[in-house]
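Inverse folding, one chain.
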C-alpha cells in the first residue's frame, strides 16, 4: 500500500492506494506541516486499522512538503513536486492523458499532462486565497461557508458593470449580461451579499479566462478542473458560462480536492 499526502497551506489531504485502487481518503487541518502530515498519516492508519508493515511507502507533495526532512514514523517517505502530482492525479481522474488541468487552491496553476510529460503552462496568484483575503477586509468574514451563504443571495448588478449598462446591443459573441468591469459599478445600495458574489465571480472569471487561453494555446477544447476550488458551486457556474462563450468545455471530477494526493501516491508507479 502507498499513501499519498498533499500538505496544503490550509488543509492536508491523504489517500491510500493499493494495486492502483483508492482505498481511503481523509482530510486534516493543523498549524504546521509536520503536525498536519503526521496527523493525516495517523488518521489514515487508525481509520483503516492498518499495520505499519502493510505500508510500503509514503509520498508527500504540496506547499508544506519541504518542511518534512525525515521519514514519517520510520516508513520510507519520498517527495514529488506538486505539478507532477496534479498531472498524474488529473489523468487518473479524467481516465485519459493529454489534458489541460486547472488546479484551483489558494492560488491557481495550469498544467498540460501527458503520459510521458507534464508541463507547467502558467497560473495566477488569484484563487481561493484571494476570496478569503478580500472577504476579511470587505465583509469581515474569513470562512468559505459564510462567504458562500452570502453570495447565494447576492446580485451582481449592484457591483459589476455589465455590457447592458453601457451598450444597447450585444457585442460580438458577448451577451448584454456579460461583465464589462468587475466591481466597476459598486452602487451605494450594494450589500455584503452582492459583494460576496462579485468576489467569487471576479476570481473565477480570471481563472476561466486564463484556462481558455491555455487550452487554445495547446490546441485543446477541454479544461479539467481540480483542487479545492474545483468544487465551488458558484465558481462552477461562472466557468460554465465562460465555456458557453468560448466553446471550451470545463470538466469537474468528484472530490477534486484529492487530485494532488492521488497523484502523489500514483507517482510511485510512474517511470
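Residues assigned per position:
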Amino acid at each position: 500500500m502507498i499513501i499519498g499526502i498533499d500538505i496544503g497551506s490550509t488543509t492536508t489531504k491523504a489517500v491510500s492506494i493499493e494495486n492502483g485502487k483508492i482505498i481511503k481518503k481523509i482530510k486534516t487541518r493543523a498549524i504546521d506541516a509536520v503536525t498536519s502530515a503526521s496527523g493525516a498519516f495517523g488518521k489514515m492508519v487508525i481509520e483503516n486499522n492498518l499495520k505499519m508493515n502493510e505500508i510500503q511507502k509514503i509520498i508527500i507533495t504540496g506547499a508544506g512538503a519541504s518542511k518534512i526532512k525525515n521519514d514519517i514514523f520510520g516508513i520510507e517517505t519520498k517527495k514529488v513536486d506538486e505539478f507532477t502530482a496534479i498531472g498524474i492525479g488529473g489523468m487518473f481522474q479524467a481516465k485519459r492523458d493529454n489534458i489541460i488541468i486547472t488546479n484551483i487552491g489558494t492560488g491557481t496553476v495550469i498544467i498540460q499532462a501527458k503520459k510521458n510529460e507534464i508541463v507547467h503552462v502558467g497560473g495566477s496568484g488569484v484563487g481561493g486565497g484571494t476570496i478569503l483575503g478580500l472577504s476579511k477586509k470587505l465583509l469581515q468574514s474569513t470562512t468559505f461557508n459564510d462567504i458562500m451563504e452570502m453570495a447565494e443571495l447576492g446580485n451582481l448588478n449592484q457591483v459589476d458593470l455589465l455590457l447592458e449598462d453601457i451598450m444597447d446591443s450585444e457585442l460580438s459573441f458577448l451577451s448584454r449580461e456579460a461583465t464589462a468591469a468587475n466591481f466597476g459599478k459598486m452602487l451605494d445600495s450594494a450589500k455584503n451579499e452582492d459583494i460576496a458574489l462579485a468576489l467569487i465571480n471576479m476570481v473565477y472569471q480570471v481563472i476561466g479566462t486564463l484556462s481558455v487561453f491555455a487550452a487554445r494555446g495547446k490546441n485543446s477544447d477541454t479544461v479539467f478542473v481540480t483542487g479545492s476550488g474545483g468544487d465551488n458551486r458558484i465558481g462552477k457556474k461562472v466557468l460554465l458560462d465562460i465555456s458557453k462563450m468560448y466553446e471550451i468545455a470545463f470538466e469537474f471530477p468528484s472530490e477534486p480536492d484529492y487530485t494532488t494526493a492521488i497523484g502523489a501516491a500514483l507517482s510511485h508507479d510512474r517511470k
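The two ends are 18 Å apart (CA to CA). Residues 192-217 form the longest helix (26 residues).
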